[in-house]
Amino acid sequence: MFRTSDxxxxxxxxxxxxxxxxxxxxxxxxxxxxxxxxxxxxYEEDTIDLLKADWSLLTQPSRLQKxxxxxxxxxxxxxxxxxxxxxxDDLPAKPVNIEDLSSQRLGGMADVGGKxxxxxxxxxx
Length: 125
Hints:
Strands 1-2 form a two-stranded antiparallel sheet. The chain is mainly α. 56% of the residues lie in helices and 3% in strands. It has helices at residues 4-58, 61-75, and strands at 119-120, 123-124. The protein is built from two helices and two strands, in the order ααββ.
């Protein structure tokens, strides 16, 4: 009835069909993953665009000027000019004098029981 060559040919055809189906299924899974990543990219780009719009709204000079006027009128604040801002290097160094530390100024913290107080980071120990 069936020859050996027919059986081998049928086996080759069945395995080729199974391999084709497996390849097609893997390609569809990868395509779905690509679509998911593209949707995520679109979502992130929309989020970035929204944040850029918010930033441009918040940094409008007219809005900032209006806020300055509100804070100046309601809180009594004065405008900051460039001469008020000083760099850290421009500040004079003031040495810490242990004798200036009194128990009254520090709320009793300078009383260390007859020992010389040790100043570490502004805290008397």
